[in-house]
Fold this protein.
Amino acid sequence: MAKFRLPDELLFIENRRAIQKTTTASMAGKVCVVSGSTSGVGLSAIKRLARGNAHIVMVCRNPVKAENVRREIMGQYNVPVDIVIADFSDLGAVRRAADSLSRDYPRIDVLINSAGLHSTSRTTTNDGFETVFCVNHLAPFLLTYLLLQRLRECAPARIIQVNSEGHRFGGLDLGDLNWERRRYAGLRGYGASKIAQLLTTWEFADRLKGSGVSINAMHPGDVRTNIGNNNGPLYRWFLHNVTWHTLKDPVISGEALYYLAAAPEMAEVSGRFFHLTIDEKPAAPALDREKGRKVWDLSMQLTGLTPDP
Ligand SMILES: NC(=O)c1ccc[n+]([C@@H]2O[C@H](COP(=O)([O-])OP(=O)(O)OC[C@H]3O[C@@H](n4cnc5c(N)ncnc54)[C@H](OP(=O)(O)O)[C@@H]3O)[C@@H](O)[C@H]2O)c1
C-alpha cells in the first residue's frame, strides 16, 4: 500500500517529530553575532556556539540581562562574549549597533537574527511602525543589510534568520504594513512580519549568489521561551497552563542553529527554509517572488537605505 503523504502545507507536522541533524564541527575562533541572545532561542544558540568554542557577540536591548548572560557563558565555557546594545524597535539604535559591529569586528563569520516578539495588541514604535513588524522584520533586515559588506569580506560566512512556522498565519498586506486600516490580530501581525522576512531572505540570497555568504531561514521548534510574556494575564495563563505542556526545551533550537551555522554540508546551502534542520517548503505567500521584490523595495525605503543600483 502506498505510504500516505501529508500535503506540503502540513509537512511541518511530520518535520516536528523528525530526527534532527547535528554536527560536531568546531566553531573555534569564529565570530558569531546573535541578536535576542538574552533569552529563549537566541540564548540557547549562544550556549551551543560557546560549547563549540565560538567568539560570541550578543546584540541585546537590556544591558543588565545581557551582562548576566555574558558572565554565565564566559564562566561556563571560557570563550569571549561581547555585548552590543540595541533596541530593535528603534532603527536608529540598529544602525548604531551595525556601525559599532563594523568598526569593532574585522571578522564576522555568522549572523543569527533571533530577536523577536508576538503581541496580541497593536502598538507602534517612535518611528510609527507597527512594533512586531519593526522588531521581527525591519530591524533584522537593516542589521543584515548593513553588515553585508563585512560578511562578504569574511566569506565564507552565514546568515540565519530565526523565522517561524507562524508565517503560515498570513497577514502581509503591502498596502497596510502598519495595520492602520485593519483590526490588528496578533497571530496575523506576527505572520506578516515572518512572511516579510522570508520574502526578503530569498532576495538577500539572490544578491549574495557567488559571494560565499549564505542566508537561510529556520523555524526553531515550538519551544518554552519568554515569547508572549509581554501579553495580558489571560494569554499568559493559557501559555503557561495549556500550551506549555506541548512545548519543548529550547536546547533543540540551539542545536539546530548550531547545525545550520557550523555543519560543513551547509556551507553551500542558501535561500532555504528549515524546520529546525529539515529543509521544508514554506507557505505559498512566502514564495511569491514578485511580492518579495516589492517587500524588498519597501523595506529599503522604510529603513532609510539607498535603493539598489
Ligand atoms: N519560542 C518558540 O516556540 C518560537 C517558535 C517560532 C519562532 N520563534 C522565534 O524565535 C525568536 C526568538 O524568540 P524566543 O521564543 O526565544 O522568545 P524570547 O524568549 O522572548 O526571546 C526573545 C529575544 O528577543 C529579544 N527582544 C524582544 N524585543 C526586542 C527588542 N525590541 N529589541 C531587541 N531585542 C528584543 C528579547 O530581549 P529581552 O530578553 O530583553 O526581552 C529576547 O532576547 C523570535 O524571532 C520568534 O519569532 C520562537
